[in-house]
Amino acid sequence: MRFGRLVPWLLATLLATPASASGAPVDLELVLAVDVSHSIDEADGRLQREGYVRAFRDPRILDAIRSGRTGAIAVTYVEWSAEDYQRVVVGWSLIDGKDAADGFAARLAAQPRVSQSWTAIGAAIEAGVAMIEANAYDGQRKVIDVSGDGVNNSGRPPALSRELALAAGVTVNGLVIMRPKPAWSWPPEPPLDEYYRDNVVGGANSFLIVATEPAAYPRAVLQKLLREIADAGGPPAEYVAVGGAGRQVAELDGS
Hints:
Helix content is 35%, strand content 22%. By secondary structure, it is α/β, with parallel strands linked by helices. The chain has one domain (3-242): von Willebrand factor, type A domain (Rossmann fold, 3-Layer(aba) Sandwich), CATH 3.40.50.
């Protein structure tokens, strides 16, 4: 991975990883890469953030973490938009129990949300790979979870960035918010679930979850994290739809 493409403050964050935890074994290294482009308004942005805060306080997440071989995962939360914007909101954190999970949720809740222009999915994937390669953990699995509500319109095509991730042994999962497209939009865009399936999601046990309305986002986040922590993915040609009307393929239990 070429670190020169990263914005300077992100590179500084990676290089500042404490050496004392080097090689700490975990079941999962997880990059939560969340779209903050202008198409996501303030209300929907709060739903995104609150979805993750609530999920890491949910006892089902702790049960899933404890069920792993080491009983621990490493997580970082990154907000992204344009090719040169990937902001580390909460750095790599070891979650091995309730105190650690609550601490991660509290740090995430305390950070301001910053909205930016453009949607660079490929750059977000590449930044996630760089963060995994530079962190202080040794995970049995490595996953980047990309969430967003639009197609790539800045930087490298995400399908090419996905290939870099797969070559590094990193799985890419997706969580999309489906929105009605205006009839006047040009050029016409493919359905976002199909776009993510064809250009973003890939790797071992990869999957895609679709929030068919913004209000369903917190529930979709919880279900996504449960699948990722338990390594319960599936073929990327299929997806789980959460919310109201939509082309629903399957529904997870327990929520």
